[in-house]
């Protein structure tokens, strides 16, 4: 799936909270929460010797992507523009 197609599909599932601040808080808090869930899964594996759960990691990365795409949508930014700008930045380092 292309990233802009994903962004459009994710947009259909976004809950609108009524104003820009609340919508952005929802997206940023969501990203933070989902990163925390991914980190907890990694902690369980590396610290507590639990099996590495690839399926769970894929789900958490998907949730992170959803909140990130939502942030882009709220701000009127094409997700592909973010990715292209990031690669350009990394290539000049």
Summarize it.
With 93 residues, this protein is mostly helical.
Report on this model:
The protein is mostly helical and 93 residues long. The protein has one domain (19-91): Helix Hairpins (Orthogonal Bundle), CATH 1.10.287. 76% of the residues lie in helices and 0% in strands. The chain contains four helices and no strands. The protein has helices spanning 3-11, 20-46, 54-75, 79-91. The protein is globular, with a radius of gyration of 15 Å.
What is the overall shape? globular
- Structural class determined from secondary elements: mainly alpha
Task: State which percent range the strand residues make up.
Answer: under 5%
CATH architectural group: Orthogonal Bundle
Most strands sheet: none
Number of structural units classed as domains: 1
Poorly predicted tracts of residues = none
Q: Rg, please?
A: 15 Å
Number of helices: 4
- The sequence of SSEs as H and E is HHHH
According to CATH, what is the topology?
Helix Hairpins
The N- to C-terminal Cα distance equals 29 Å
Helix content class: over 70%
Mean pLDDT: 97
- Total strand segments: 0
Q: What is the CATH C level class, in words? A: Mainly Alpha
């Amino acid at each position: 799936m292309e990233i802009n197609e994903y962004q459009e599909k994710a947009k259909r599932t976004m809950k609108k909270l009524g104003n820009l601040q609340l919508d952005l808080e929802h997206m940023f808090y969501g990203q933070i929460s989902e990163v925390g869930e991914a980190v907890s899964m990694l902690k369980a594996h590396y610290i507590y010797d639990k099996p590495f759960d690839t399926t769970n990691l894929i789900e958490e990365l998907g949730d992170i992507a959803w909140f990130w795409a939502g942030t882009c949508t709220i701000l009127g930014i094409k997700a592909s523009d973010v990715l292209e700008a990031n690669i350009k930045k990394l290539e000049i380092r």
